[in-house]
């Protein structure tokens, strides 16, 4: 479970997709990705005034925090787990 979950609840379906996606990230990058995305997703939810981290918060966190060098891998993994990232891309 995300370390920051203690500060905000995570919507159950979004959390399951997030956990499935992070499990597929190569081990070397997994912990780094989890740290930055956990933190940014919570920040995104708080900025929206929400009590829950939702799919849009997680997707925005990945899109803004993961280096462009990993973009194609990130998009492939989002597709695999069912994150609808296209509606959140700028």
Strand and helix map with partners:
Layout: E1 9-10, H1 12-24, H2 27-48, E2 52-53, H3 55-65, H4 71-81
Parallel strand pairs: 1-2
Helix pairs in contact: 1-4, 2-3
Provide structural commentary.
There is one protein chain. This protein is mainly alpha-helical and 90 residues long. The protein has a domain of 60 residues. The protein is 63% helix and 4% strand. The chain is built from four helices and two strands, in the order βααβαα. A two-stranded parallel sheet has the order 1-2. Helix 1 packs across helix 4. The chain starts with 8 loop residues before the first strand and ends in a 9-residue tail after the last helix. The model has no long low-confidence stretch (mean pLDDT 90).
Keywords:
90 residues, two-stranded parallel ribbon, mainly alpha
């Amino acid at each position: 479970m995300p370390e920051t979950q203690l500060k905000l609840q995570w919507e159950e379906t979004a959390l399951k997709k997030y956990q499935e996606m992070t499990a597929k990230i190569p081990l070397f990058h997994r912990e780094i990705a989890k740290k930055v995305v956990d933190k940014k997703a919570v920040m995104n939810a708080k900025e929206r005034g929400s009590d829950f981290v939702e799919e849009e918060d997680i997707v925005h966190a990945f899109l803004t925090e993961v280096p462009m060098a990993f973009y194609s891998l990130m998009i492939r993994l989002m597709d695999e787990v069912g994150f609808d990232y296209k509606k959140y891309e700028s």
